[in-house]
Amino acid sequence: MRRRARLIAVLAILLGGALGVISSTQTWVVVTLDDGAVLEVPGSVAVPVLTPLSLAALALGGALTLVGRALRWILGTVAVLLAIVLVWQPLMVLTTLPVGAVAATVTEATGISGVSAVADLVAVMVPTLWPAIGAVGGGAVGFGGAIVLATAHQWTRTGRRYDTSAGDTASHGPLDAVDSWDELSRGDDPTEGTPHDR
How far apart are CA 83 and CA 8, in angstroms? Predict the structure, then answer.
């Protein structure tokens, strides 16, 4: 399990970031105005920080495959902080349906601005499942960040392609999936010399 911790953490963060990006393009709230007009509010409008923070999570997940121990702690902490926002904001939309989340869409459709003026125009607001899916994505980012913080000191060392000898590589412990991929990408077979080959 320890050897798989990095892979699990990276996949969780990447999955969470991807869910956030996908959900940001979907309808989060369906708004019915007093005149009967129906408007669909996407996640990127309901929570403007959703897309950039989800993209940041994707970049962070990729960076975790490359950085050393000190940066792992930093990125793990950042992932947890991102997750707090990525869970809290969608849940706020889902549970409280704030007028501010739909104001930009209503203003674009009617030309009327201001939260109080928009509130007077809105008859009904109905959330979809996408805010919940966005919150699940945020939870996945937090889960991955927590794994990083708990296990980063046990991960095998990255950057093996820069080692000067095979003996140095062997001294750093077994390869995990990410390191094996690095070995294959530079033309080395990471299974050579394993005990079952001898």
Answer: 16
177: Cβ–Cβ under 8 A, 6 or more apart, which residues? Answer: 4, 7
Q: What is the pLDDT of residues 73-119, one digit of tens each?
A: 999 999 999 999 999 999 999 999 999 999 999 999 999 999 999 99
Query: Which of 2.60.40, 3.30.43, 1.20.140, 2.40.160 is the CATH number of 5-155?
Result: 1.20.140
Residues 1-19 have pLDDT tens digits of 566 888 899 999 999 999 9
State how far the Cα of 82 lies from the Cα of 101, in Å rounded to an integer.
20
Instruction: Using the structure block, give the residue that is written with the tokens 């911790």.
Output: 5
Check if the beta carbon of residue 150 is closer than 8 Å to that of residue 80. no
Q: Are 20 and 132 in contact (CB under 8 A)?
A: no
